[in-house]
Amino acid sequence: MKTTVLFVCMGNICRSPTAHGIFRDKVAAAGLADQIQVESAGTHGYHIGAEPDERSQEHAAKRGYDISALRAQRLTARDCETSDHILVMDEANLRDTLIVCPDGHRHKVRLLTEHCQRLRAHDVPDPYYGGANGFEHVLDIVEDACEGLLAHLRQV
Asked: What is the Cα–Cα distance from 12 to 51, expressed in whole angstroms?
């Protein structure tokens, strides 16, 4: 039975698809793709069906991650029920995810940054309204957190 990891941000076009792509690649490189399923969603339905933000795709590609095939979807209660680990990007995502998530599944919801090993970050800041540095900062945090998350899942 596969373990399902769900990454959540607001619109599912910047941070959560970036985490989705990075973690998917790290899982595959570790030879665990048959054991870990990776998904992503947004707490708001602003961009349902849209591909990731062009800037997210561009900056991810510079580091070897292809997130172009991902499409935005909105978080549902069912997603919370079927996911084993739900990693959110910031406190607002945490609050909004807990509203959607049924009572018996709220324990699965955590901040992604809890898995950071090298960087000190409370959240993954939304780069949408900023410049290139914001997207690079997101990649730095998410790569670190995804390495920590993978290490955690190997121990469980």
From this structure: 9
Would you name the residues annotated as active-site residues?
A: 9, 15, 126
> What are the pLDDT digits (tens) for 75-131?
999 999 999 999 999 999 999 999 999 999 999 999 999 999 999 999 999 999 999
Distance CA 134, CA 11 (A): 16
**Residue that the structure tokens 């940054």 belong to:** 113
Q: How far apart are CA 63 and CA 89, in angstroms?
A: 20
Distance CA 32, CA 131 (A): 34
- 85, containing H or E segment: strand 85-88
Q: 28-59 burial by CB neighbour count: b if 16+ within 10 A, else e?
A: eeeeeeeebbbbbbbbeeebeebbbbebbbeb
Q: How many CB atoms lie within 10 A of CB 91?
A: 11
pTM above 0.90, yes or no: yes
